[in-house]
Design a protein that fits this description.
RNA Polymerase Alpha Subunit, Chain A, domain 2, four-stranded antiparallel beta sheet, Alpha-Beta Plaits, 7 helices, alpha+beta, about 325 residues
């Protein structure tokens, strides 16, 4: 990808991106719109409201106020150690206490008092509520990082568009100097020079082909390059346009790595570049002992048979004992 900045201001950026397919360019555009985090008021506590507006309307108006974002100090609530409860790492507080004088009063974002001087409204002239004599508003508000996919108040851009680089050519041999292409083109791409139409601002063409349709002699050809784009980013003021573009690319890179690791048998490039493990020195194998000779098993002696004489002696002994028991 090759990026060339064409025009840049505080809130706008126009650049030329080369070497990118349309699908990839559209993915980056959608990430900038829906997945680039910014600060916005998420929680509002209405302590007193005497204005003609309902509490919900005041909370809604405060939520849509664009706030300047600081990535170095705050993290998403889902990534915070407080688990979304709210702490100094994931939220910034505001207070507002106003009372209208006799001639009335309009409460604006300039009346919001931030706890963090780096997280403030991008403008102090955004109206919140109109108050009559004696009416008061007392509010506490808490801002958090979020993404536009959850709510439009977290979108960092008001415009993020791209178009393919146009190529406009005029054949001077066919051009008859009728000036119709100059009159029809509302983007001032053409200009008459020496009775001939000349292309003076090719990149400003919107590929509408009105010039081609009005040219009777077919002297104009309009084409486009599918791999080169002109990108226009207009920020809400929450972040500089270049920071939005860089942060969008970071989010795209993380999503790409998650996709690669989820595929079976695929490993991210970072894991493949690990240094090789050091080889261990070979250990000496212990010497085997000589096998000892086993002793031959001894044969058991066969039991001796009792003779008739010994058998008769045992019988007489048992009978004699039984007789003595009976006598007793």
């Amino acid at each position: 990808m090759k990026v060339t900045v064409l025009e840049q201001t505080d809130n706008t950026l126009q650049m030329r991106v080369e070497g990118v397919r349309p699908g990839l360019m559209n993915a980056i555009r959608r990430i900038m719109l829906a997945e680039t985090p910014t600060m916005a008021i998420e929680e509002v506590v209405i302590l007193e409201n005497q204005s003609p507006l309902f509490d919900e309307i005041i909370a809604h108006r405060l939520g849509l106020v664009p706030l300047k974002t600081n990535y170095d100090q705050y993290v998403l609530s889902s990534d915070c150690s407080c688990e979304g409860v709210g702490c100094h790492l994931c939220q910034a507080g505001f207070t507002m206490e106003v009372e209208a004088p006799e001639d009335g009063f309009i409460a604006t974002t300039g009346d919001l008092k931030p706890q963090d001087p780096e997280v403030v409204p991008v403008s102090d002239k955004i109206p919140i509520a109109k108050l009559a004599k004696g009416q008061r508003i007392v509010v506490e508000a808490y801002a958090r990082l979020g993404i536009g996919q959850d709510h439009a108040k977290w979108q960092p851009v008001s415009t993020m568009a791209y178009k393919m680089v146009p190529h406009v050519k005029v054949d001077n041999n066919k051009c008859d100097g009728c000036k119709e292409c100059v009159e029809v083109c509302f983007r001032q791409v053409f200009e008459m020079q020496k009775d001939k139409a000349v292309v003076v601002d090719e990149e400003n063409c919107t590929l509408c082909n009105l010039c081609v349709e009005t040219c009777d002699v077919q002297a104009i050809t309009v084409s486009h390059d599918e791999n080169n784009f002109i990108v226009t980013i207009e920020s809400t003021g929450a972040l500089p346009p270049m920071v939005i573009f860089e942060k969008g690319l970071d989010v795209f890179r993380k999503k790409y790595e998650e996709l690669i690791t989820s595929l079976p048998g695929r490993v991210p490039k970072a894991a493949l570049k690990k240094p090789p493990a050091k080889k261990k020195a070979p250990t000496k194998k212990p010497k085997k002992k000589a096998p000892t000779k086993k002793k031959a098993p001894t044969k058991k002696k066969a039991p001796t048979k009792k003779t008739k004489a010994t058998a008769s002696k045992t019988k007489t002994k048992t009978t004699s004992k039984s007789k003595t028991k009976k006598k007793k």
